[in-house]
Amino acid sequence: MTDNNERASAPTTAVFDLHAIARNFPATADTMLVDTRLTDEAAASSRVFRVYAPAPAHYHATCDEYLLVLSGRATFFLGDAPPFEVGPGQLVFFKRGTIHGTPEILSEPFIVFAVDTPRRDPKDVIFVNPADGRPETFVQSQILY
C-alpha cells in the first residue's frame, strides 16, 4: 500500500489484456478522454484510452506518439492534411509538435492503445485554440499498477 505522496512501483514485466481494460471504461465521461496508464517509464509510457468527445486541434511538446485503434471508428487529422478515417488495426504515428485531433467519432466505443516516446506527462496537451480546453478537461487518467 502507498500513501498519497508515493506511487506504487511499476512492474518490471507485465502482460496486459487490452480488451478487458477497454471494457472497464465508463459509458460516459466529463473529459474528452479517459485513459488507463499501463507503463510510465522515462523512455516511454503506454496507455489505453477511450475518446468520448471530438478532440480539437492540439499537440504534445515532449513526445512522439503511436496510436493503435482497438475498436470503433473516427476521423483523425495530422497537420494540414485532410481528415481521414481510422478503425481497428490501424496504427497512426506522428512526431512531437504535430498538430492532430479527432473531429468526429463515427462508431463507439472508440478505443486506442498508445505508446508515447519518451514518456508523456498527462499535462503535455497544448491546444491550438486555448479556449478549446486544458489538460484537466482533455483526459482523466487512471494508473493500472
Task: Give helix and strand order, one letter per element, not per position.
Answer: HEEEEEEEEHE
Q: Which stretches of 5+ consecutive residues score pLDDT under 50?
A: 1-7
In terms of DSSP E residues, the strand content is over 45%
Quick one: biggest sheet?
9 strands, mixed
User: How helix-rich are the residues, as a percent range?
Assistant: under 10%
What is the overall shape? Answer: globular
The count of helical stretches stands at 2
Name the structural class: mainly beta
- Radius of gyration in whole Å, from Cα? 15 Å
Give a description of the structure.
With 145 residues, the chain is mainly beta. Helix content is 7%, strand content 46%. The termini are close together.
Short description:
The chain is mainly beta and 145 residues long.
Which key features would you list for this structure?
globular, 145 residues, 7% helix, 9 strands, mainly beta, nine-stranded mixed sheet
Topology at a glance:
Elements: H1 18-23, E1 33-40, E2 45-51, E3 55-59, E4 64-78, E5 84-86, E6 91-94, E7 100-117, E8 126-127, H2 135-138, E9 139-143
